[in-house]
Design a protein that fits this description.
Strand 3, helix 2 and strand 4 form a beta-alpha-beta unit. Helix 3 crosses helix 6 and helix 4 packs across helix 9. By secondary structure, the protein is of the alpha/beta class. It is elongated, with a radius of gyration of 19 Å. It has a domain of 155 residues: 3-Layer(aba) Sandwich (Rossmann fold). It contains nine helices and five strands. The protein has a three-stranded parallel β-sheet.
C-alpha cells in the first residue's frame, strides 16, 4: 500500500461543560471542579495513535493533571501531546487578571525543580536576597530562575510534574515560542506574562515581592 498523503485526523475527543470554569474557581473548590469538567468520546483513539490536544494556555496545570490527562489516558493512546498556543506563563500579572502568586505557575515550579535537580539552589537564594533588598529603581530579578534552562527543558519538566504515575501513555507538552507569538500578534500590548518584561517599575517591584512571598512560604498575593 502506497501512502499518498499524510495529514492529522481530527476528532472531537474531549467535550467541556461550558457552565464550569476552572480558571476562575476559588482555590478551595478548583480541585474538585476539574474532575467534572470534561467528558470524552470513546472508540475513536487506537492504541497506536498519537493524541494531540490543543489548549489556549497552561497556567497552573491543575486541570491537565487532575482531569484531562487521566481522561485522555483512558482512551489508551500511545502518546499524548499537549500543545499550548500561548508560551510558558512564567510571571504573575498586576494589571488585570488576578494571577499574583508565583508558586501557582507550573512553569515556575518546573524551573525551581530543575534548579534543585541540577544542584543550583544557590540561584534561588541569590534571587531572594536581591528581591528582598530591591530599591526604588529595580528590575525583575526573577528572570534568573529561568535563565539556566532552555524553554524545551522547562517544558519537559512541566510534562514530568503533570504526569501522574498512573498515566500509561507518554506525555509531551509543546508551547508556542515567544518569537512566533510576536509574529502571530505583531501589535500586541505586552508580553510580560511570558518574558517578565513589565512595562512599569511597579511591575518589577510586584514580581520581586511575589518571589519573596514564595521563598518565605507566605501564601498571599503580592498586592
Amino acid at each position: 500500500t502506497k501512502l499518498l498523503a499524510e495529514r492529522p485526523r481530527i476528532e472531537k475527543i474531549a467535550i467541556k461543560d461550558a457552565k464550569l470554569r476552572t480558571f476562575i474557581a476559588s482555590d478551595d473548590s478548583r480541585d474538585d471542579l476539574v474532575a467534572h469538567v470534561y467528558d470524552v468520546t470513546y472508540g475513536v483513539v487506537k492504541p497506536t495513535d498519537n493524541l494531540v490536544v490543543i489548549d489556549d494556555s497552561i497556567v497552573r496545570g491543575t486541570t491537565l493533571k487532575q482531569s484531562i490527562l487521566r481522561i485522555l489516558d483512558r482512551l489508551n493512546p500511545k502518546q499524548i501531546v499537549i500543545v499550548s498556543s500561548a508560551p510558558q506563563i512564567r510571571y504573575p500579572d498586576c494589571y488585570g487578571i488576578d494571577m499574583a502568586k508565583l508558586g501557582d505557575f507550573i512553569a515556575f515550579r518546573a524551573a525551581i525543580a530543575l534548579l534543585k535537580d541540577t544542584k543550583q539552589e544557590y540561584i534561588i537564594e541569590e534571587v531572594y536576597q536581591k528581591c528582598k533588598n530591591q530599591t526604588e529603581d529595580t528590575e525583575n530579578f526573577v528572570k534568573a530562575i529561568y535563565n539556566p534552562f532552555s524553554p524545551e527543558e522547562i517544558s519537559d519538566k512541566i510534562a514530568e510534574l503533570l504526569t501522574d504515575k498512573s498515566i500509561k501513555a507518554e506525555v509531551k507538552i509543546i508551547y508556542q515560542g515567544i518569537d512566533n507569538l510576536h509574529k502571530a500578534i505583531p501589535d500586541h500590548k505586552g508580553d510580560w506574562y511570558f518574558t517578565g518584561d513589565y512595562p512599569t517599575i511597579g511591575g518589577a517591584k510586584f514580581v520581586n515581592k511575589a518571589f519573596v512571598n514564595f521563598y518565605e512560604g507566605n501564601n498571599k498575593r503580592a498586592y
